[in-house]
Automatic annotation (TrEMBL):
It is a lipid-anchor. Keywords: Signal, Transport. Its main location: membrane. The keyword Signal applies. GO terms for molecular function: peptide transmembrane transporter activity. One of its GO terms (cellular component) is ATP-binding cassette (ABC) transporter complex. It comes from Leifsonia soli. It is found in: Cell membrane. One of its GO terms (biological process) is peptide transport. Belongs to the bacterial solute-binding protein 5 family. This is Peptide/nickel transport system substrate-binding protein. Residues 87-454 form the Solute-binding protein family domain.
Amino acid sequence: MRPRKSMKMRVAAALATVAAATLIITGCAGSGASSSSRLLNVYSGNPGNLTNNFNPFVADVAYGANGAVLGAVYEPLFYFNSAKNEKPQPWLGTEYTVSPDGLTYTVTLRDGVKWQDGKPFTAADVAYTYTLLKEKPELNLYGLKIAEAKAVDDTHVTITLSQPDYPNEYRLLGLTFIVPEHIWSSISDPAKTTNQKPIGTGAFDFGQFTPQSVTLTANKDYYQKGQPAIPGIRLVTSTGNAAALNSLNAGQIDWAGIALQDVQKSFVDKDKKYNKYTSIPADIKVLMPNLSKAPFNDLAFRQALSLSIDRDAIIKQAFGGTDTPANPTSLLQPRDEAYIPADYKGKTLDQDVDKAKKILTDAGYSYDGSGNLIGKDGQPVKLKITTVTGYTDTITANQLLVQDFQKIGVQATPEELSLGAYSTARQNGSFDLLDDRIPTGPNPFQQFSDSLDSAKTAPVGKPANANFVRFQDPKVDQLIAEAGGTNDPAQLTSAYQALGTYFAENQPYIILSQNGAVTTYRDQYFTGMPTPDNLWATPSNWLSGNIGYIAKSLKPVK
């Protein structure tokens, strides 16, 4: 995850600090503060200190805690609501068309938009942003296939691709933040700049940074009349889920992206008037096996590990019962039901320890007198399961997984790393098994592309973009290319079914559950959050674009 600032900013309110196990927010965060002057206090779910880097083109900034800042300061062309199957909503762009060959996007832009330093926003800025991504591949986080970007006039731009990439529209138009040419064209190395004073077109100006919080203030010159109605946002940090929950229940946090083991009991019941939550099938929780080394590069071993897992216990005890059983294809249910192959419809992943042991012995593994699994190298099979310090849900899940793996003789040790160390290990391939998730978008393309595309991996020791398990198979690359190159529903279905079948048969990732994506919030001071009955936006605040899109529409309680 990753993020930015402005000249006309006024910093309102005091800052947040982390004290022992509880996040304490001072100043206007108190329960007696006026709603009209109170900042929206947001915890995105990333523990530990924030970094003073707001470069929107750096992966660990855009995908990390600072991504929330990026999504409030910068804006993309359109908003894609992954909670619903609907047309993208206008943002900096008002409408777009795609040429019959799928190569050229013609976008109409809003008129009268200004950058937060007062300079006019035009199509030249949009063309510059996409040209920058084409000319500097290290900035192209999403592997966009950009051939050319041109400003037709001040409010029209064309973006031409080198090949059709229909399912990737979400990232092309909805995840790419537009930056000002008059600032970024003077940066000598855009990949290395920390962009500590970000200036965008968003509803919130960058205010002040500390390692514990970032303050954003309302952009008084924002182009959408009446927005934002709230005075600003404070992104805060915490030591982990438990501390953030304490602050949430104390009314010091208004909106939090934390996983809770029992959201009803631990949060909603604490204040039934104001404490609310949403839960939507968002993505797939997985164990990421390091496919570059044994025994994880052995399909039989991965199959056995998967069969040893009691997923019902993990969903109930670690994930609070808000997750649901996942389909072996990794396709989301019910959203992607039409793409699930007939052989896998209605299927889930069940525990079968006896079958797991047979797969292992048939594949050449053995057991010693103490029941420990002996690998093909003659050594006991030992591994580490790694998660982030403070992630109470995955910490609990790992404790359960250690017990499950022991049933097939695998000696597993849980490991906790700081978020920074975890991210580095994941990117560089220095891990055994990682607790993580496969993100998705409005369709299955992103999850297959990010998890399986060989172009998004790298040799061990080099940073991978998204394919952290180091998976490579030319046949799968071809299927991903077919899915990206067609707008024909039948061809798209065929490609997704083939990818889903491959995933189920080869288990390059070990699926745990379908993420219920719990988002907790309090509506004591602010109204207008997406609700289960009205998901006008995706409420997950760890997705960078959602912060700005939702916060600009919120209103203080009168």
